[in-house]
Amino acid sequence: MSIGSFVFMLHSHLPYYRKAGMWPFGEESVYECMAETYIPLLNAVDDLLQEGLQAKLTVGLTPVLCEQLADEHTKKGFETYLTQRITAAEKDEAKYRNMGTAPNPEYHHLARFYLNWFKSIERDFKERWGRDLIAGFKKMQDAGAIEITTSAATHCFSPLLEQDDSILGQYKTGVANYKKFFGKDPKGFWLPECAYRPAQNGRAGVDKWLYEAGLKYFFTESFVIQGSKSAESRRMIGPYGSIQHIPTRGVKDSGNDTFEAFWLKEYPVAVMGRHEQAGYQVWSADHGYPGDPNYREFHKKDDSSGLHFWRLTSKNTDLGAKELYNPETAANQIKQNADHYVGFVQQALTDHLKETGKPGMIMVSFDTELFGHWWFEGVSWLKDVIRKLKTYTAVTMKTAGEYLEECPPERSIELPESSWGSGGHYQVWLNPQTEFMWPIIHSCEKRTIDILHKYEGQKPDALTQKALDQLVREKVLLESSDWPFLVTTGQAKDYATERFEEHVERFNQVADMLESGKIDESKLAAIADIDIIFAEIDTANFVLAEKLPAEAAASHHITQLN
Q1: How many C-beta atoms lie closer than 10 Å to residue 134's C-beta?
Q2: Which residue is catalytic, options 92, 93, 165, 367?
Q3: pLDDT score of 58
Q4: What number is the average pLDDT over the span 220-243?
Q5: Is 193 among the catalytic positions?
Q6: How far apart are CA 138 and CA 115, in angstroms?
Q7: Which of 93, 208, 274, 404 would disulfide-bridge 111, Cβ 3.0–4.6 Å?
Q8: Angle at 512 between CA 552 and CA 467, to 5 degrees
C-alpha cells in the first residue's frame, strides 16, 4: 500500500542564445547544459528504463529551449564544443603524465576522468540520441518514463505584460510548439518565474489565459499555498543564488498545506505547491546537498584547459585554497545524500498519513540545470534517489499529470500576486535597474496589436506575412523574463541590456516596414537569420477577438504584498 505520492518536477530553461555571443554569456551556456545536464538526464532516465524502472519525472521544456536544442546550428556548435573539450582534456592528460621525474598522479587521474567523460557525452549525443535531444525526450515520454510540460514561448513575466493579447499569444505559442515537437497537446505548464496575478480592477487574471490555452495545471511556491511562516534569508545554488531570497513577510498562515493540489476558484486549472523542506534540502546553498565539501567546485576552472580540478572544500574557502576533487569520494557522498533524501521523503509522507489518515503528495520543483551543470553530481544523485524510492519504499513516484488524474483536487484556492523571487512579489523583475524596460515592452505590445489590426481581415502576400511573423517573434523575444532578471542579479547586466535593446531595435525595423508598406526583403531575411524561432507562430494568437471591459494596464497595478 502506498503511503503517498512524490512528484519531482524539473524546469528546463535557457534564454535565446543562438548567434548571440559565445562566452561568458551566449551559445556556450547552451553547450555546457547539453553536456552536463540534458544528455546525462536522458541517459539516467533511459538507464532506469532498461532496468525496468520508469523514472516518472515531470520535465518542463520551455519552447525557447526546445527551439535551440532542435536547431542544426546549435547541434554543430555543440559538436565543435565537445571536440575542444576533448582536446583540452587530452593535453592535460599528457601534461600531467609526462612531467619528467615528477608526474602528478592526482591531476593526471582527473584529466583522464574528464577525457573519458567528454568522450562518452560525445558518443551518447551522436549514437544514443542521434544528435536529437528533443526526440530523445519525446521517446522517454512515449515510453511512460517522463511527462513533459510546456511554458510561455519565451518565458515572459506574465503579470507585468500590459496586454492580455500578449499573455495569451505567449501561452498559445508554447502549446503549439509543444505539439510540433511532441505530437500532442500539453497538460502541464511552468508559469515563468512562478509569477501569478489574479483578476483585479476589471482585468482577467493569468488563470483565464491558462484555461483559454487549454492547459490543465501549473506549479507555484510554498508560501503561495500555505502563507509565509518565515522571514529567514536564504541562499540558493545556481543562478538564483545571486538574489537574497526573503519570503514574504506579514502574510498569515493560510491553513493550507502543500500535501495536496487545489483547483483555482474561477477556472478548472489545478495548482501544486512546492514542499518547502523537501525543496530546501536540495537547493539551499548553506544546508543543501550540493554544498557538500566533497562535491565539485563550479566556479574554479583551470586557466588553460577550463577543466574543473577542485572540490568545494568548504563554503568559506577562497577559490585559491580549494582542494583537489576526487570523483570516487564524491560518488560515495552521492549514495549517502540519496539515502538521506529517500528517508526524508518517506518520513514526511508517513507523518502526514498518521496525522490525516490519508496519503498525501510531496511535489518539489527545481531548475533542471541545477543537476549536472551547477551541481555536477546532481543527475547521479537523482538517479539513485529514484531507484531507491521505487525499490525500497512505499512511496509512489508519479508525474504531475498522473497524480492529478488519480487524485483530483477536492478544494479550491485563491492565489495572491506572487512569484518565486525575493519578497515573493515582482521586484526582481521590476525595480530601479529594470524599470526602463517596461514602458518599452508595453509600447511594443501596443504597436504589435495596432499593426495586426491593420492587416486583420486581409490575406497578406507572402512577404508581408513573413514580416508579420517576424514582428511577433521579435516581440516575444524582447518580452523574455531573462533580460530583467540578469540585470537585477548583476550576473550579465550589460549583456542582458544589449540583448533586450537588440530585439527592440529589430522589432522596430520590422514594424517600420509594415507600417510604411515598404518591406526590405534582404533586411528582413538578415533579421530572420538571427532570430529563426517558432516556425509555427500564428499572428492570430496575438490579437484577442474581444477586449474585456475596463482592462487596466499592468504597470498601474504593481503593488507589494502586505
Answers
A1: 21
A2: 367
A3: 98
A4: 69
A5: yes
A6: 29
A7: 93
A8: 90
DSSP code of residue 20: S
Residue-averaged pLDDT of the chain: 92
Closest CA relative to residue 82, chosen from 126, 40, 132:
126
| The pLDDT value given to residue 239 | 65
> Has 502 been annotated as catalytic?
no
- C-alpha 154/C-alpha 173 separation (Å) is 9
Question: What average pLDDT does range 143-168 have in this prediction?
Answer: 98
> Which residue bears the cell 511594443?
444
- Output b/e per residue, 119-130; b: 16+ Cβ within 10 A: eebbebbeeebe
Which residues touch 421 (CB under 8 Å, ≥6 apart)? 193, 243, 245, 427, 428, 429
Instruction: Give 318-379 as a 3 state SS string.
Output: CHHHCCECCHHHHHHHHHHHHHHHHHHHHHHHHHHHHHHCCCEEEEEEEEHHHECCCECCHH
Cell of 351: 507523518
Q: Which pLDDT value is given to residue 544?
A: 87
The three cell numbers of residue 386 are 529514484
How many Å apart are CA 340 and CA 382, to the nearest integer?
12
Radius of gyration of the chain (CA): 24
Q: What's the pLDDT tens digit per position in 422-464?
A: 889 999 999 999 999 999 999 999 999 999 999 888 889 999 9
Query: Which of these is catalytic: 193, 207, 260, 445?
Result: 193
Residue 53, all three cell numbers? 524502472
Q: 360: which strand partners?
A: 4
Cell of 435: 524599470
Residue whose entry in the numeric block shows the C-alpha cell 521590476:
430
Give the CATH H-level superfamily of domain 4-12+47-59+134-300+343-423. Answer: Glycoside hydrolase 38, N terminal domain (3.20.110.10)
